[in-house]
Specification:
Layout (H helix, E strand, L loop, with lengths): L1 H53 L44 H15 L3 H12 L19 H7 L7 H18 L4 H10 L1 H7 L6 H12 L5
């Protein structure tokens, strides 16, 4: 009688263990679906807001085509940029990039995109103080503080990757400089406040934050 009793208890224990374990994958899958849906909804809202600010309701913030790959990953399909909740406090729990690394990145990007290395360096310093993990209160990310929807438009897979982020910021600056005929203050004003606000007045927007932003970057440039 001892043998069958032990066998029966063994079967009961296995049955109890099997129930919770089989439910876990379904719960995890549901959580992943909910997180993905929330991320896509947030991204859609940011994309719509950017379209309204720039007067381009077609969904494209930039004149540049969407990149198919970045960071040397040829042919890779760009995944949606990670969403940072609006209102998150400034986060920069990492050290600034070492000066030699900053200079190397700036030099390579400047040569590739045709944007002044001094301008790239000054914008990067003002935006993130050279911290690649910086996140603003509005959700802007990385060295050049790209918004999630902006990063997606540029095809940036990982906005916290220094190479990809600087590449995106440089392409944005290049577009703005071309748009405003090489006028650096206007381009910087548009980088900070959006092109629509510059277009509306034909000058740097009279927003204290933007005025101070432009002033500080220009003061750090050798030709100003």
């Amino acid at each position: 009688m001892i043998g069958p009793l032990i066998h029966c208890k063994y079967i009961i224990v296995l049955a109890l263990l099997a129930g919770p374990m089989s439910a876990q994958p379904a719960d995890a899958t549901a959580q992943q679906r909910n997180a993905t849906a929330a991320m896509q909804e947030s991204l859609a809202k940011q994309r719509a807001a950017i379209g309204q600010q720039t007067g381009n309701n077609g969904g494209g913030f930039f004149l540049l085509p969407r990149a198919a790959s970045l960071g040397g990953v040829t042919g890779a399909v760009a995944a949606p940029a990670p969403i940072v909740p609006i209102g998150m406090p400034q986060v920069a729990e990492c050290d600034p990039l070492p000066a030699p690394e900053v200079e190397s990145l700036v030099g390579e990007t400047s040569e590739r995109e045709g944007v002044s290395p001094d301008l790239l360096r000054s914008v990067m310093k003002q935006e993130s103080a050279f911290r690649p993990c910086a996140v603003s209160s509005k959700g802007a990310m990385g060295l050049m503080q790209l918004m999630p929807a902006t990063a997606e438009q540029l095809g940036i897979v990982d906005p916290f990757d220094p190479i990809s982020n600087l590449d995106g910021g440089a392409r944005f600056l290049k577009q703005l400089l071309s748009r405003y005929g090489g006028d650096v203050p206007k381009a910087l004003g548009a980088y900070n406040a959006g092109p629509a606000k510059v277009d509306a007045t034909g000058a740097v927007p009279a927003i204290p934050e933007t005025v101070d932003y432009v002033r500080q970057i220009l003061a750090a440039l050798p030709f100003h």
